[in-house]
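Ticket #4471: structure output looks truncated?

Reporter: J.K.
Steps to reproduce: submitted the chain below (82 residues) through the standard prediction queue, then opened the result file.
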Amino acid sequence: LEPGEVESMRLAMSVCLGHFAELSDIAASPFLRAVDREARGTRPDAPGDDPLLRPLSANAPDWRDDLFVVPRLPALGREAED
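Returned output as attached by the reporter:
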């Protein structure tokens, strides 16, 4: 650091430490060591439909010339062009 930057850095670090002190005052619950499987059901361990395996065009509102087309927003001031 340049000599003039030392004081600026000291002040910035003091602000950060002040924020850390505030965070340490927040009441927090302890970390869970394990998850109780009975508390919540688990999903079946079976493969399902993977949306990433479908073609991109299946997710598009409109598909023209190999391009994903979405309607123009009315707030943009012009109606959609065909």
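Triage note (M.O.): checked the attachment and the full token line is present. The longest strand covers residues 62-64.
Status: closed, working as intended.
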